[in-house]
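On clarity, I found the account of how folds are encoded harder to follow than it need be. For illustration, here is how one protein appears when written out as sequence plus C-alpha cells:

:::
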Amino acid sequence: METGTALLTLLHLCIAIYWLGGDLGAFYGSTFMTDPKRTVPERMMALKILNNIDMAPRTALILAFPTGLALAWSKGWLPISGAYVAVAVAAFLAWLALAWAVHLSHGGGAAEGLRRSDLAVRYIVLAGLVGAGVAGLTGALAIPLFISLKLLILAGCVTLGLIVRVQLVPLFGAIRTMATTGPTPESDATIMAVNGRARISVLTIWALTLTASFLGIATPVYTGA
C-alpha cells in the first residue's frame, strides 16, 4: 500500500475512533448534568464540557464522506477524477467550518443564521447520500455494494442527528430554569426524559457507525476481490 493511501486509510479509521470516543465522553458527561444531587454549577459545567466534547462526533460525521471518497478514489473503487474528489473535500471542509462557527457563536447575534445555514446543508447532504446510495444499489451508478451501504448508513446517522436536535428542544427551557431559579422537580424530569430519548438515538448511531466500520474492513467480501 502506498504511503498516501495508507495515510487516507488511517485518517478514515480515526473518524470512527473519534466519533465513538467523543460520543462516549458526551454520553458519560450527560450523567453529571442530569444528576439532581449535583450542584447547579457542577451540572452547568458538565453541560459545557458535554457540548464541547460533542464537537468530536459532529466533526467526524462531516469528515466521514470526504475521507471515505478520497480513500475509495485512491484505491480505485470509484471511477471518478481527482478534481471531483478535491471539490468534494473543499465543500465538506467549508461545511465543517460552518459547523464550528455555529458552535463558537452559540448565543451570539449571528448564531441563528449560521444554525439555519448548517441545517440546510445537512438536508442537502442527506438527500445526496440517499440518492447516491440508492443509485448504487439499483445499478444506476457504478458503486461497489459496500460503499452504497455505507452511504445509506451515513445518511441514517445524519437523519438521527437531526432527530436528536428535535429531541433536545425541551431541554433548553429546563436548563434555563435550572441556571436562573434553580432546579425544580419539573425541570429535572424534563432533563431526564430528554436525555433518555436522545440516548436511544445516540446508541443507534453507535450501531450504525460500527456497521459501517465492519463494511469498510470486509470490503473484499463485497467487492468480489
Q: What stands out?
A: The longest helix spans residues 185-217.
